[in-house]
Amino acid sequence: MLISQLVDISGTPAATIKYYVREGLLPAGEREGGNRTSYDESHAHRLRLIRAMLEVGKLSVSSVAQVLAALDDSSKPLAETFEVAQNALSRDAVSEVSPPSAESVERVDAVVDRAGWLNCGDNVGRGIVAQAIDGFARSGHPVPDHYLDQYAAAAALVAEADLDAVGAIADAARRTELMVVGTVLGDSLSLGLRRIAQAHRTNQRKL
Fold first, then answer.
1. Which domain holds residue 17?
2. 115-160: per-residue pLDDT in tens?
3. Could you tell me if 49 and 106 lie in one domain?
4. Which of 23-27, 53-57, 87-91, 175-179 has the highest mean pLDDT?
5. Which one is predicted more confidently, 67 or 203?
6. Where are the beta strands (DSSP E) in the chain?
7. Is-contact 110 130, C-beta < 8 A?
8. Does a structural domain hold residue 64?
9. Contacts for 16 with CB less than 8 Å, ≥ 6 apart
């Protein structure tokens, strides 16, 4: 297909497509006679991924490039590709604040221990949760342990849903792709559903 057709299919302006090619996010099309360049469905699919990460996942262009590079590297195990996506999302979606306190990090480790989670010591989420705990404390609303444990239980259910969806796909490349896309977009999904659930529970309790 020509770039005009790719524009129609993807809803992405031609100038943006060319920018993605220059930035290495999108493979170049195949040069034909004259100034014609042809593209195929793989380009349209990649554009959908790029736009989802940029527009919904709110990743930077450089982080999208890192995630796509990990996706394209078939030698990487799934866990390593997953970690790239986690780190990219955490770096771009979490506000820069002061490093977490040692006390809050200890509380996170205690939550992890109570939940029975293994091999989580260097996960990027550890620092994010500790920063949130510090933020609650600074606001004058320190969070009790049972509150953290309830959040951990909810997170475990979400993680099971993620892995069930990934495990249902037979093709290894598609599994890896869903793991990355789910990591990038899952936070937005969780955020939206949490807002709806809060409104529902508030109405139920008549607060």
1. 1-56
2. 999 877 778 888 889 999 999 999 999 999 999 999 999 999 998 9
3. no
4. 23-27
5. 203
6. 30-31, 37-38
7. no
8. no
9. none
